[in-house]
Amino acid sequence: MQQSRVEGLAEVRGVYEKMRRAICGVVMGKDGVVDLALVSLFAGGHVLLTDIPGVGKTTLARAIASSIDASFGRIQFTPDLLPSDITGTSIYDPRRARFEWISGPIFAPVLLADEINRATPRTQSALLEAMAEGQVTVDGISRPLPEPFFVVATRNPHRFQGTYPLPEGLLDRFMMATSMGYPDRRAEIGIVRAQIERRPLEEMEPVVGVREVSDARELVRSVQVHDEVLGYAVGLAEATRGHPAVTLGVSPRGSISLVRAAQARAATRGRDFVGPEDVKDLAQSVLAHRIGVRGTATPLATTAEDVVADVLDAVPPPA
After folding, report:
1. Where do the DSSP E strands lie in the chain?
2. What whole-number distance in Å separates Cα of residue 62 and Cα of residue 57?
3. Read out DSSP for 195-220?
């Protein structure tokens, strides 16, 4: 049994390495962000990318989709977008005298939710059930989404015109949130050179199949989590709730996401057990977007990232 699990996790690492090489050939100089996105995919979660336009958020999402031999759905969120534009709707067919279901773009293994905070909160909420339960309920009928189902959402900074805040419930459904940031000079030169000479994204070919990704997600759940490491992850979440600058601490869903992400990180590195470093290294990306702060309530912590840093200093990892 032990040998079969180790062999299975070796397959996870193989799928991860093939996807990582293909994606990093298109998204240059952002290996860390690519790693986080793939860890979220393998852990069964979803990822939120927040940054200014033009730094590669959409390119990363499309590259992930292109690396998998699967259909790709894209929704451009706008203020006039309706929930039915995402989920689908029933249309009456007079020839057959019955309603016919027309699936929306959400019925795809990989979904790009582009500029998600440009739509109204009512429309944003159409993603809640899909991201949490892998299904969509319309007119009282629940329809399962494909497996795997992976959402890559992009968000413009809240100070940009025409944006709406994301509800806390929706933010909590994203396993990870991170940003692209500007590339360094060397990477940017490579990006510009590649774009003026060819179109790397259009030349990209799938390197893994849907079944391989689904199998990898199942195998990740077999990665062992020692009670002390589990207690460390829960302790970090608990510590956010008592922080003086926090108005909304990390929920139990955040604790679950942190442990599952740590399992995926361990598997992609060829290990069949989670170490404290897996939890610690992922804490910012998994926890910060779930925290509400008082702003300038204290001089020591004014952002969610500061809170997570404080918690990491306060809660010692197991030996």
Report:
1. 47-50, 68-69, 72-76, 88-93, 98-103, 110-114, 135-138, 141-144, 150-155, 176-178, 208-209, 246-248, 292-293
2. 9
3. HHH--HHHH----EEHHHHHHHHHHH
Phi, psi of 112 (to 5 degrees): -100, 115
Q: What are the pLDDT tens digits along the chain (319 aa)?
A: 454 566 667 889 999 999 999 998 888 888 899 999 999 999 999 999 987 777 778 888 888 888 998 888 889 999 999 999 999 988 888 888 888 888 999 999 889 998 898 998 888 888 988 998 899 988 888 999 998 899 999 888 766 667 888 888 899 999 999 988 788 888 888 878 877 777 777 788 899 998 999 999 999 999 999 999 999 999 999 999 999 999 999 999 999 999 999 999 999 998 999 999 999 999 999 999 999 988 654 555 478 999 999 999 999 999 8
| N-to-C CA span, the chain | 27
Q: What is the set of domains in the chain, with CATH numbers?
A: 2-217 (3.40.50.300), 223-314 (1.10.8.80)
Pairing label, strands 292-293, 246-248: antiparallel
Task: Report how far residue 121's alpha carbon sits from residue 125's, in angstroms, rounded to the nearest whole number.
Answer: 6
